[in-house]
Specification:
By secondary structure, the protein is mainly β. Helix content is 0%, strand content 41%. The chain contains no helices and 31 strands. The strands form 15 sheets. It has a 3-stranded antiparallel beta sheet with strand order 26-28-30, with no helix packed on it. A two-stranded antiparallel sheet has the order 1-2.
Length: 315
């Protein structure tokens, strides 16, 4: 048997037929020439049954997976890299073919895998008319005291406190940007509560500037003078009034007259302020007022009185 000596020169299987050597190969091998068997590359046939990478091993093929995949028999299964420590992302983690893709929420900017807050208030105050706050990358407008945020959530509108119960002021109310103040009319001043107006007693300060008497009234005052004096045009100074006198007044015919303080039958002049009572004799009736007064102009007021007989008329 020629195969009994050195396997007939075959590298693997040897079979003799009619004293002739015939070499053959095991599976996954090809006969090169007449004697030698060389392995066949199984990865060239349907990738060796591997879903991804195929390498030749001593016992056949060895399947391998790229990064981000896990080998299950001969199939590579995609792993979710975001499951472990969020893929290294500070916020949102997505993956594409096993590759991590980090994403940021609105108001943030991506630096590598880190999302950093992007302050929206840095540009034009975030569009806010007054205060701008950065809350997790989101612009929030707010207003100072005395203002109200409009529905557009950006512009602040002044609140007119005077429209509601006159701002609780006792008299006047003046609206100011973001505030208001109570006001008082002339002759009043505001109490420490900044709400109530009380009368100013001008007479308590330098007698109101009056030379003689000062009389306080609600919201104002007046200077007065004693009897026998008159107030000058400046409203503060008093001057002595000249006493005017009236010519002697004679009693009516058929009547009489009495003037307390002097006798008209003796006096030639009567001081102003003198009052005389007039009457008629029996059988006569008085026409006119029963008294006459010497006024400040030195004249007797009322018309002349007459005594007429009963039954007579005066034209």
């Amino acid at each position: 048997d020629p195969c009994s000596e050195s396997n007939g020169g075959c590298s693997h299987y040897c079979k003799s037929e009619a004293q002739t050597v015939r070499c053959s190969c095991p599976a996954n091998h090809n006969l090169v020439g007449d004697k030698n068997c060389v392995p066949v590359n199984p990865c060239l046939i349907d990738n060796g049954g591997c879903s991804h990478n195929c390498t030749v091993a001593a016992n056949g093929v060895q399947c391998q997976c790229p990064a981000g995949y896990k080998l299950d028999s001969s199939t590579c299964i995609l792993l979710d890299p975001c499951r472990e420590e969020n893929g290294g992302c500070s916020h949102e983690c997505h993956h594409n073919d096993g590759k991590v893709q980090c994403l940021c929420p609105p108001g943030y900017k991506l630096f590598g895998k880190l999302c950093l807050d992007e302050d929206p208030c840095q540009k034009r105050n975030g569009g806010c008319s007054h205060y701008c706050s950065n809350i997790e990358g989101r612009r929030v407008c707010s207003c100072p005291s005395g203002f109200l945020l409009r529905p557009n959530q950006r512009v602040c509108k002044d609140i007119n406190e005077c429209r509601s119960n006159r701002g609780n002021c006792s008299h006047g109310c003046r609206n100011l940007p973001g505030s208001y103040e109570c006001t008082c009319p002339h002759g009043f001043h505001l109490e420490p509560n900044n709400r109530t107006c009380i009368d100013v007693n001008e007479c308590e300060i330098d007698n109101g500037g009056c030379e003689m008497f000062c009389r306080n009234y609600k919201g104002t005052f007046r200077c007065d003078c004693p009897e026998g004096h008159a107030l000058e045009r400046d409203g503060k100074t008093c001057r002595r009034r000249e006493i005017q006198q009236c010519q002697n007044l004679k009693p009516p015919q058929n009547g009489g007259m009495s003037c307390p303080g002097y006798r008209p039958d003796y006096a030639l002049l009567v001081p102003s302020g003198t009052k005389c009572n007039v009457w008629c004799n029996e059988g006569f009736k008085l026409r006119g007022r029963p008294f006459r007064t010497c006024n400040e102009l030195g004249e007797w007021d009322n018309v002349d009185t007459q005594c007429v007989g009963l039954g007579n008329t005066v034209s």
